[in-house]
Write a structure and sequence with these properties.
Number of strands: 10
Helix content: 40-55%
Bound molecules: ligand C2E, calcium ion
Strand content: 15-25%
Radius of gyration: 19 Å
Protein name: Putative diguanylate cyclase/phosphodiesterase
Number of helices: 11
Distance between the termini: 56 Å
Organism: Actinoplanes missouriensis (strain ATCC 14538 / DSM 43046 / CBS 188.64 / JCM 3121 / NBRC 102363 / NCIMB 12654 / NRRL B-3342 / UNCC 431)
Oligomer: single chain
């Protein structure tokens, strides 16, 4: 059936329901791939909008597949979430990102790192200890780690999720609500489980200078964040006009292709050298 949809070519896209066989194949390939160290982490810098200096980097996973090339997260994160492999992915990315943060610190760069975590992890009572153990293993101060929470499903056990978030905060880890304004991310969370940061979804930022509705939404989220004393980050900043408009609105941090694409660690190190001169 999938073959018909793709004109005779069996597209390698596990997010489509291409049948049990290919999903199972990909699932076991992914497990093996993680064990063999095939997950690679790229880093996309964020800048302070007011000073334009680098103020952090987001870790974005890719899979260096032995035969299919470099796969983006959209090709395997949904499957990892469904199959329970996501915890292995999170642990691997966290480990690589904290090791890299340590290397940047040795080079004299103070660069907090953000790691993506599905909100579902908040229902795992052992999650705070996993994070704290990883920080200790790499000797990284908790305040240099931000967890970007994305909701791809409703978190039903809100009580437990709130408790896990509270413990993470107590340890000093920073919490960000990713893709704010889309999907299941809800304003009620700002009251019940206050984060440190809101990240405005790129779908609102990308065309904010051409579309006045997008601009209005970005302005409203920035104002909401300011009034709640939260930091606010805009992602998907693709041009100078958007960066300037965000400055006028009082947005704290910006991330996007206009600043830099996600880069392998070594290339980001070079970028940091250039942008801190
Ligand atoms: P996200 O967390 O919203 O990450 C931002 C995505 O926007 C990245 O896509 C990034 O490359 C892209 N992007 C950055 N700047 C721009 C821009 O100026 N314009 C446009 N059009 N796009 C921009 P990427 O790397 O393909 O990641 C896609 C999603 O996969 C992420 O969205 C995140 O939800 C998920 N993801 C990535 N790494 C991980 C991970 O380690 N764990 C988990 N659970 N999810 C991850
Ligand atoms: Ca993110
Ligand atoms: Ca996002
Ligand atoms: Ca997203």
């Amino acid at each position: 059936e999938a073959k018909r949809r793709h004109g005779g070519v069996c597209a390698y896209d596990p997010s489509l329901d291409t049948g049990d066989t290919s999903r199972l194949t990909l699932q076991s390939e992914l497990r093996q791939g993680i064990e063999r160290g095939e997950l690679v982490v790229f880093y996309q810098p964020k800048i302070d909008v007011a000073t334009r200096r680098p103020c952090g980097a987001e870790a974005l996973v890719r899979w260096q597949h032995p035969t299919r090339g470099l796969l983006g997260p959209d090709a395997f994160i949904p499957l990892a979430e469904e199959s329970g492999l996501i915890d292995m992915v999170t642990a691997d990315v966290l480990d690589q990102a904290l090791a890299q943060l340590g290397r940047w610190t040795e080079l004299g760069h103070q660069l907090p790192v953000s790691v993506n975590v599905p909100a579902r992890s908040l229902t795992d009572e052992a999650f705070p200890e996993t994070i704290v153990a990883a920080l200790a293993r790499h000797g990284v101060p908790p305040k240099l780690l931000t967890l970007e929470m994305t909701e791809s499903a409703v978190v039903t056990d809100m009580e437990r999720a709130g408790e896990v978030l509270r413990r993470l905060r107590e340890h000093g880890v920073h919490i960000s609500i990713d893709d704010f304004g889309t999907g299941y991310s809800s304003i009620a969370h700002l009251r019940d489980m206050p984060p440190h940061e809101l990240k405005i979804d790129r779908s609102f930022v990308m065309k904010m200078c051409e579309n006045s509705r997008d601009e209005t939404i970005v302005r409203a989220v920035v104002d909401l964040a300011k009034n709640l004393r939260l930091r606010v980050v805009a992602e998907g900043v693709e041009n100078e006009d958007a960066l300037r408009a965000l400055g006028d609105l009082g947005c704290d941090e910006a991330q996007g292709y206009h600043i830099s694409r996600p880069l392998p660690a070594a290339e980001l190190t070079a970028w940091l050298g250039r942008s801190e001169m």
